Amino acid sequence: MSSTGAVEAETRTRESPEPSAEQLDRIFAILQNHRRRLVLEFLRDHDSTTQGDLARHVAAVENGIPESAVSSTQRKRVYVSLYQAHLPKLDDFGAISFDRDRGTVERTARTDELLQYLDRFEDEPQTMTLSENQFGLSTVVLLGSALFVVFVGEFGMVPADLSLGAAVLLSLVGMSAIVYDIRK
Predict the structure, then answer these.
(1) Same domain? 8 vs 32
(2) E-assigned strands of 12-146?
(3) What InterPro entries does the entry give (predicted)?
């Protein structure tokens, strides 16, 4: 671990348990990067690892494939990024102990501290977006029916007032179903 990171970790231990605004800024700056969060998550289950194993794991997660399927190009891209940027930042912060010469990464007491911050946000309810396709088939059918009724009314097959009323009713029921899906 770098001497700066060790001094900060020691100072943090002796200070109050609540981090200052400046310390929180540094914590969130460390946690803002997805690869650094993946490194910390990997170290949740491993006391130490090699940079190569870590690069393979991060590449697998980022590409949504098993570690055994990671190509050398995918692994190398992550390896260089970890070596040049992310592992030194985590080491300077004291979140890991990174030995560049040996290519080893070890967890520290601050690893657990940062994981606690990640755990706080993991328990938060996730907001649902339309792109997540989590609405039920009935909702899609109701809203599709509303559109169909409007088109039928436009072609004069049904009186305009009747088609408009039916479309509004179907739309309201469909929107209610969406709200129900989001809240459950």
Answers:
(1) yes
(2) 48-50, 96-99, 104-107
(3) DUF7344, WH-like_DNA-bd_sf, WH_DNA-bd_sf
CB-CB neighbours of 149 under 10 Å: 21
Q: How many CB atoms lie within 10 A of CB 172?
A: 12
pLDDT digits (tens, 9 = 90+) for 60-119: 999 999 999 999 999 999 999 999 999 999 999 999 999 999 999 999 999 999 999 888
Residues 35 and 8 in one domain: yes
| Domain boundary pick from 74, 104, 122 | 122
Model-level pTM greater than 0.90?
Answer: no
Q: Locate 137 and state its tokens.
A: 């088939």
